Amino acid sequence: MDQLGDGGFAVVHRARDLHGFNQEVAVKVLQDVASVDEWCVARFQQELRVMSELSDPHVMPVLDSGTDERLGLWYAMPLALGSLADVVGPPMDAELVVAVMRDVCSGLIYIHRQGILHRDLKPANVLRTRQGKWAIADFGLAKTVVETDLRLTSTTEGFGTVFYVAPEQWKGAKRVDEQADIYSAGKIMQALVSGETPSDDDVPAGRLRAVILRAISKDPARRYGSAAEFLSAIESALAPVPTGLWESPGDRGERLRARLKGDRLVADATAIAELVRWSEGPANLDGEYAEFCRTLRVLQHGSIAWWWEDNPGEFERVMTVFTGLLDRTFDFTLCDGLADFARRAVAVTNDAGIMQRVVTGLTVLGWHHNRWHVQDVVVAILQGIKSEDEAAIAMEGLRIAGRNAVSWTVGSTAVQTFHPILRAGLNAF
Predict the structure, then answer these.
(1) Domain check: are 154 and 294 in the same one?
(2) How many CB atoms lie within 10 A of CB 221?
(3) Which has the closest alpha carbon to 355: 400, 300, 311?
(4) Which domain holds residue 320?
(5) Which pLDDT tens digit goes with each residue over 92-133?
(6) Where is the domain boundary, 214, 237, 260?
(7) What is the chain's percent helix, strand, coil content, to nearest 5?
(8) 427 in helix, strand or coil?
(9) Alpha carbon 418 to chain centroid distance?
(10) Which is it for the CA torsion 41, 45, 51, 52, positive or negative?
(11) Contact assessment for residue 110 and residue 54, using Cβ atoms and an 8 Å cutoff
(12) What does the pLDDT look like over 19-65, one tens digit per residue?
């Protein structure tokens, strides 16, 4: 037999079934049974038992099993044409991603209905069958929802594959539920879309992005409730767009504001995702920048806090777009609301980079529009700075805004209430 691979406590060989259909098969062998610990043997036996009871086109079947005096415990399954690990390379076309995930989710739907959690879903464990389907394999870390042998879970806290395992699994593997498998499937989808190992939560822009981000949320309660719901969202994301329909920037903003306004404890994730896509539009958002900023400004403390906690990098990117637009012309009545939103963002995130960009943007905004409320907001932000590092960062933000904008915004009386580094910087500016 030719060895195909090894991992953990087992080895996989290529062999030929001489007693059945004379076909090539993959034989997984637990070698040196006497030398491996009791847990490994129990896990291998459970994997065999689980797979033997499953029958679905999207789950690799067991053809035969047994014990060999020379090889040890073994079981045979059809020889696969490869795994998803072989195709994670350049970013995959969205339609192909949906086709792959349709098979993966179908397999998950089936095993979850049997009361089984996989707990080690990753590209290497999704195999290509001879029938051209993708099928879930390697149930070595699987468990039934009602685990009867506590030995199989008590020593496995935190197991899984680092880039694909759900964060809660590291804390308590025996207490995870279906959402852990959904997280892993989402990470597989991220790898296919990006063409890279999903070492972070940075998902490329596109119609599938919002679906992936929900699936890989750090909070299980924010993920999809089932593999079937996940699959439905995937297919809906790439559903054909109706022709003949067009939404003006004003209509789009009004629709999103209705879903984003209010001090929500949990923001409308779908509306947030659309707001992110809006920010990733053409440079300067063409003629839509005012409507985009008008929509963003409705976010209150609770929604900002949720977004910042859930995906700080994404929020920071949107804030960079927002503050970069503040040197443009706005309706005078809108300026005060933009300043209030920016102040909320600074207060909630307590992030020096966001603070610097807000100081620059609002200083220019207030000067261009002669808005005293905007001036008051900038001064209040500067007065709240207590550390040397933040003072230096804020000073750079003022320098970027320019001498004329700073002179209008910061009077000599206000300067006396600032951190010494800011006072020195402004006096020398």
Answers:
(1) no
(2) 8
(3) 400
(4) 249-428
(5) 999 999 999 999 999 999 999 999 999 899 999 999 998 999
(6) 237
(7) 55, 10, 35
(8) helix
(9) 40
(10) positive
(11) yes
(12) 655 678 778 777 665 555 666 676 777 777 778 788 899 998 887 76
